[in-house]
Amino acid sequence: MKNTIARWFDSDVGYSFRTSPVAMAAAAIAFVCIFCSVFAGWVSPHNPADLATLELSDARLPPAWVAEGGTRKYLLGTDDQGRDILSAVIYGARISLVVGVVSVVLSVVVGVLFGLLAGFLGGWLDTFLMRVCDVMLSFPPILVALLISGVGRALFPNAHESLAFAVLIVSISLTGWVQYARTVRGSTLVERNKEYVQAARVTGVAPSRIMLRHVLPNVTGPVMVLATIQVATSIITEATLSFLGLGVPPTSPSLGTLIRVGNDYLFSGEWWITVFPGLMLVLIALSVNLLGDWLRDATNPRLR
Question: Where is each ABC transmembrane type-1 domain found (predicted)?
């Protein structure tokens, strides 16, 4: 493990990371956010999902540094139900990250599969899949997500939380796979005419084996860069749907839900209820986007 990390730091990508203060700062912020989200049960001072610990008398308390009403028990204040804002932000970030990462993984799997088939086999399948991509690109992703999520809520109003999460992830992934499919198709069109692919065909290797063992490893570079950037986009989409009331269930609030709740009290002086969840969302999205931009530049040989 140590040797692998050492080799990575000595590589071109590792050197680019070590010499980029922006990438290092973004990685540190992303690591802190992900670490706190994954280990929310140990990091957060309170459990906002435990109704037995909520005190309505502590509702809408300001942050600890505010002289009037602030207390060290709630460093970032409380919301309208007496939940600790710091704990709610940590737990909400975990939900947003899970939804964002899972939706991107699903988009990558579907997009890479369709892109490989379209680029390697060609013919009517390539034409059909690309026309489907054109149709999907003609609709704004947020509108498609709103439609699928709204229909899912209407058809299953009393659905279990797991089903609600599944509908949300599918609604975000429905348009996300298109970019991966078009990217992989373009790379596959180049790779399928190279000598190593022709040699594999001559020796009788099955087309499926050529795609998975030979072509796929050579087209995953752009996919990894695109997936890194798409994580931030998926998190923002999930926050938008939750802000509009079509995201995660109210019993498992994400950052978007917390921002929506705090928006009702923003002009009455309780600014901390919406500002801190919004700040957490900005930090996650900004750090992931900066890492994606750095990875794109570091893996581009024309920029070295």
Answer: 93-292
